[in-house]
Amino acid sequence: MGAFSGSLTYRQYRVRDSLSGDYLKAFDEGIQRNLFYPLDPSKDQDRSIGWCDPKFALDTDLDPSAYVMTDYLVLGLRVDAWSIPATTLKLYTEAEVRRVMEEQKRESLSRYEHAEAKERVVMELKRRILPSTKVIDMVWNLSDGMVRFFSSSQRMNTDFMDLFETTFGMTLLPHSAYGAAQSTQSGLLASERDQLEAIEPSYFVYADTAVQAMTEV
After folding, report:
1. Is the pTM of this model over 0.90?
2. Is residue 112 part of a domain?
């Protein structure tokens, strides 16, 4: 969703670091290490996240020709997750418990045996249903360091920032006046950017004036 179709809602970031050396080769190595991989119902994992082809989410066999577009690097971030309705899980677990009691000619099972039955049901349901899938586009302008991620979800943006920094070894800053100043494209010296860390916030309205304005009817 985002870059090629659907909503144009996005959050914007700046890459704090500058490009150097054969960065496309380094980027490709990072992308290959963090490609999306399908969930395995036999494993104890409920969520998978990684990069995919920006135009076809099922394609995870990527090379630079798929995601480098002139001065832009475009990728899809795919997230798959198992989502078993609680009611469904409860019903099938109860059926499994009854089956075991009938098979073993018992009137009840221990808490541990109930947990085992539930785990068997979860694994079976995972084999029978498809995980939910979300795909969100990321567009990185390599010439000015601007990155757009087409989701406003806080969790998705947190996951995106973590994956981006793990993949590319570069720091993302939310786009703001401070973020723009911290960018290597800002024109500021490194020493001047460091001084930004010590800046104190400025208030344009006295505290008592603000309180009075809020209490006036």
Report:
1. no
2. yes
